[in-house]
Amino acid sequence: MWDRKVIKANARASFAANYWRCVLIPVILIGIGMVFGLVMGLSSAMSMLGDMDGLENAVNSLNDGNVGQYLSYLMPKLRGIYGVTGLISLFLINPLSVGTSRFFLVNSYTPAEVNEIVYGFKGGRYLKSVLTMFLVGILTTLASLLFLIPGIILTYSFRLVPYILADDPDVSAIDALTRSRELMKGNKWKSFVLDLSFIGWIILSAFTMHILMIFWVLPYMLGAQAEMYRAIVEIHNTGNYSGGKGGSGGYAPDFGAPYGQQDAYGRQDPYAQQNYGQPAYAQPDVNAQPTYAQPDVNAQQSYVQQDPYAQQPNQAEAGSAQDPYAERDNARQTHQPDAVIDNAEDGNI
Q1: How many Å apart are CA 80 and CA 189, to the nearest integer?
Q2: What CA–CA distance (Å, rounded) separates 341 from 330?
Q3: Which one of 23, 53, 87, 142 has the minimum C-beta count within 10 Å?
């Protein structure tokens, strides 16, 4: 079985390796929801202020104890607010939640990029993400309305659905729900205990105006859930969890796993990068010897040594071998008299 301490140690290691992106992803998800919620609230307030007579009658009815009339005024407006909010959650927040799961799942292998958050919108996965998360919401809500405890149990049964959608692009909506229920058999209580282990951090963040929640607790929790998914899938398929316990109480994810390593489903690991952070071209072997030819120390010297006793040519003989017209040309160049030039041409000089 997987160990909660190992799961949390792995989550901290992945979080530390990609800190600011891990903080930014949940901020984006929550921020979008808060913006749309604020817009809907302001719109409802403006609508009520535009109908001051109806609002006054409703308040007077409530003061007179006529709750029914007050609710008849309020409910249509609430239905409008919740209807629009539900549509936003269905078509925008749900695919973003799948993208958030994708980010932290990838980050458990190697530092992930922020654009993973739009994973649920790309590659024909949008409608499947919307439909699957809609089914999860409907089933858990109906179960919670009927009985509280069965609703909680069903919520944990579907806990892994967004991670399955993020991990397997070919899974169908029904298969994602079925696979999550299968994987969570025997793991619901341990998953609940994992959530409870963060209760101290959640309480502490309340004293920091939830600043600690943004910069530590929420990314930490999301990373731990991704690590839990990896552990459950690995145990389900292999019967063993390779996480183990190291000297530091856990192990750091292998960010540089070679491409071709299979994931727990037996498929090629889509997250392991080939030579992560290194160029794809071949690297030189630093231990290899140079291939250029070495000089042969036994080879005989092939150059001819100069004879030190060779006679240099006699200067007089060298002078006699000069061009007979050289003196004439020199005389012309130095502007000597024509007589000297003529004698030189006649050979008298």
Answers
A1: 38
A2: 9
A3: 53
